[in-house]
Amino acid sequence: MRDDLLDPRAVLLHESAPDREAAIRRCGRALADVGAVAEPYIEAMLERERSISTYVGEGVAIPHGTNASKEDVQRDAICVVRFPGGVDWDGEQVTLCVGIAAKDDGHVQLLSQLAEILLDPDRARTLREATEVSQVMKELI
């Protein structure tokens, strides 16, 4: 994965959220805080979730915006937000969210790269259990 996609400031490992919406908002805020997206992208992430769940299994969700929200993306980026206490995701427990912001069709490549990492049980476990930003950077970059 390109090393410019993950700003260390967008790796948040000790977060909590009362519900899925709050967790998605936290991901969107992380992307906005590093200048990857404009504010409206956060609402687009929630809109995407309402149309189809971004839960991918193994305690991981990959929230991202709608196709219409690409104009709110300043640059391709991801964020990694860990919720050690878990978040109820429509009946599933999510402990790791990897938020995506991508211009054009960049999300397709990002999703396939993330899937490759997350389908490796050892790497996925490392990410779910990470307590240091450096661990996440090592796995994803």
Radius of gyration: 13 Å
Distance between the termini: 5 Å
Biggest sheet architecture: 5 strands, mixed
Task: Tell me the number of helical segments per DSSP (H or I, 4 or more residues long).
Answer: 5
Helix and strand string, N-terminal first? EHHEEEEHHH
Principal-axes shape call: globular
Main β-sheet, spatial strand arrangement: 1-4-5-3-2
Structural class: alpha/beta
Nearest-integer average pLDDT: 93
Tally of strands: 5
Helix and strand topology:
Blueprint: E1 6-12, H1 20-33, H2 40-51, E2 55-57, E3 60-61, E4 77-89, E5 92-101, H3 106-118, H4 121-129, H5 133-140
Helix pairs in contact: 1-2
Give a written overview of the molecule.
Strands 1-4-5-3-2 form a 5-stranded mixed β-sheet. It is globular and about 35 Å long. The model has no long low-confidence stretch (mean pLDDT 93). The chain is an alpha/beta fold. It is built from 5 helices and 5 strands, in the order E-H-H-E-E-E-E-H-H-H. It has helices at residues 20-33, 40-51, 106-118, 121-129, 133-140, and strands spanning 6-12, 55-57, 60-61, 77-89, 92-101. A hairpin with a 2-residue loop joins strand 2 and strand 3 (60-61).
